[in-house]
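User: Okay, second chain of the day. Same drill as before: sequence in, structure tokens out.
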Amino acid sequence: MAQLKRALSMATMALLASNAWAEDDRIDRQTETAMPRQKNMYGIGVGFIPKTSGSKDFRALVLPVINANYGDRFYINGLQAGVWLLESSDKRIRFGLSADARFGWDADDSSRTKGMDDRDFSVDMGPVLRWQTDYGTVNAQWGFDVGGASKGQNVQLQFIRNLYRSSKLRLNGLVGMQWNDNKLNDYYFGVDADEVRPGRPAYKAGAGVQYQIGINGIYSVNQNQALFFGLIANRLSNEQGDSPIAETRTQPMGFVGYSFGF
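Assistant: Same drill. Structure tokens below.
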């Protein structure tokens, strides 16, 4: 947690001292987000995520998808929306606020959680910092559960880099880490006293760091239509993986969809 906060502080200081940069044309717009950009895109997608925390099984979610900027100030990127409030003169460094959706789960979807309380959908909101370098994009984000499900918080660091680019196909790779406090981890991975069953002891999850690696891509069918896809693997922290409801420490997630540009 301390290392993540120090990195966020250093990037903020860089924002205040960055007016000497003026090479806006060197900014890689394709790595502004984990998904490569193509106009303002609107479509529908199918995501595959674990049924419950630490589950080996998956559930499918059909969702509308938006990947768009409005006035180069407001943006929606899949399950994240935000606004930029401050920026360097060349826009390489930007500071703002963002909100991210966090899915809960139905306890009846897994034998390990059956009989427990459902975990609710919520929204994390907080400050976000983006630093676009010549080598890729660094994102730092501090999120607070404003939806009131866990009442916890998390800090994320992520690096996005272009892997392949042609007139039709673009691929971005990403690596990241996320610190979750004890409230967030315990809500999604803990077992309360009234949820104890044979083979499922009480468990209180502490704070911990999970890691992420993935690849996202977009294939241009034509100038105004595109197929998008992605695959991300999360490595759970020890505090999450040691939970009696967790079946695996590696949580893959994937999505695919079709979008139209305007």
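The chain has three helices and twelve strands.

User: Thanks, on to the next one.
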